[in-house]
Amino acid sequence: MKILLAPNAFKGCLSAREFCSRASFLAEHHQVKCLPFSDGGDSILEVFSSAFPSAKIYYARVFNAIGKEHKAPYLILEDGKTCIIESAKICGLGELKKSELDILNASSFGIGQTIKAAYKKGARVFYIGLGGVAFNDGGAGMAMALGYKFFASDGKKLKKGAAVLRGLCLITPPNILPDIKVYGLSDVDNILLGPKGSASVYGPQKGATPSQVKLVEEAMTDLHRAVKKYLGVNINTKHCGAAGALGAGLKGFLKAKLVSGAPFIAAKLGLAKAVKQADVIITGEGKLDSQTFYGKGPFYICGLAAKYGKPVIFVCGINEVKDKNLLKKYSVVKMAELSALAGGREDSLKNAPIYIEKALRKIFDGKNGPRF
Q1: Cβ neighbours of residue 294 under 8 Å, at least 6 residues apart?
Q2: Alpha-carbon torsion, ordered 213, 218, 220, 224, to 10 deg
């Protein structure tokens, strides 16, 4: 059989590439193509480095979300001009302890530093994955790193962080802004403000209390007003609430095009052709729930599989979708839930690689095809 492995990363457990490694035994009897996938959030660097082996990885010394210096990776493709940046690798939420979370003062400054470093290496087109960050400053910190200045009503220059943006009155752009083209790749559709905005939906995930969520919402409101007044850009649109509102900052300060990550990345990887050529597709993510069907990578893959009439084996840590008709609609013919196989959530998280292999060995019996 021709098998396409196209998993997302299992957040906090294993990468998409590690998933493929655990399924490598399938190559003993079948033709296997491994195409790690991302919807714009975590693992975008891994996905592009796997798809484009000639790409070069570089490291920049930058600040993380709470101002600690570290080495952050970025990728430049073979053309020498296209750069891949994963925001979570620079100012990631997963890199911090719970006690270190500080949504009011956390900053996207390191994103701007990374853009500058890649620009010096020759990059002119940027694909920036949005997701998994510890800040909610609307990309203001990133803009500061690139030379933008922010001022309060009393004329004082503002420092980094979300809290100080409440009362923002003036934005001045740098004399020279890098001549670059930017794409923000998002796995969510959230706008900047309101009940479905960045602060309300994602603030609590970054450790924000209800009062802090309110303060950040006010700060983002003032940022929105100032960007519209001084830069002429509306940053309260689709995808702007992604990654601590970094989407808003990319659009406002760098005139970026914000797009759904899954179809954009799929087109760059030639995913549709790979699905069409396969006999069966194996995909998955850590948690299958209602959110999966709103732009997440596995949902996009399942949609392609349904389009071409290809069966899907879906591997997940936890399955909260019990509607078999819904799964069938998206071509899912076999579900492998690791927590059920392991006998518990904690064991499945700790030993996800082991249970992925066990699950697939139960489905595939030697030279025979999968048991549906």
Answers
A1: 188, 189
A2: 160
